Amino acid sequence: MSIVAIIPARGGSKRIPHKNIRDFAGKPMIAHSILAAKACGLFSRIIVSTDSDEIAAVACAWGAEAPFRRPAELANDFAGTDAVLLHGIVEAEKLYGPVEFACCIYATAPLLRPEYLCQGFDLLRNSGAATASTVTTFAAPVFRALRTDERGRLKWFWPEHANTRSQDLPQLVHEAGQFYWVDARRFQQHPDTLHDTVPVLLPRWAVQDIDTLEDWEVAEHLFKRLHGL
Question: What would the pLDDT profile of 129-154 be if each residue is shown by its tens digit?
Fold first, then answer.
């Protein structure tokens, strides 16, 4: 069985320069994703999809491989992760033969744990779904959201739920941004990760988007607490 990890990591991050290889708790950020992928023991290949020779060198130093460079049209601010994953699978098959399952692991997921990857793979195979994607719950009920009006005054976004008890509202989830698994054949035929997807539910304390320096500081604090640092 050929199972590959594809880690998208383009250069040119604007909000946090060199985000993918910037030091995070003593290691380049991308190293945490690579080490989790290695530790789970599932992958025959851990491939970094990048347009940057610098990122490729760091990734290879930490045990991944970067056998191709991502084309410019997939290395801009508008390129979607699904398109990058599809390109990575196609290139991997050119080099190494058929891929049965692939896992897109985000380069900025330092809270990722190997057991989550194994859990996602088991869910994908046992469910018969095309995709398994990480999600987590919202910290507060979404249907009790507030907004400001044109006068700057608070208003209910959904006024029909102003008096609905929290326990009577549906439980919603959002993307956790750590990884998603795909059945490679079905994904190449239908590259839309939400058309047949099962959730890999992660605890909120294991999830942190890293888009700003404040996000970075929060993630590093969580990492250090989780690892006793």
Answer: 999 999 999 988 999 999 999 999 99
The residues near 85 (Cβ < 8 Å, ≥ 6 apart) are 6, 8, 49, 102, 104, 182, 187, 191
- Coil/strand/helix, residue 121: helix
Residue ranges of the chain whose pLDDT lies below 50: none
Neighbours of 203 (CB within 10 A): 11
Rounded to the nearest 10 degrees, the angle between the axes of helix 114-127 and helix 29-40 is 50
CB 156 within 8 A of CB 162: yes
Any domain includes 180: yes
Quick check: is 158 in a domain? no
Q: How far is CA 90 from CA 84, 98, 160, 216, 218, in A?
A: 10, 9, 48, 33, 36
Residue 74 within a domain: yes
Please give the tally of structural domains in the chain: 1
pLDDT at 228: 85
28-55: per-residue pLDDT in tens?
Answer: 999 999 999 999 999 999 999 999 999 9
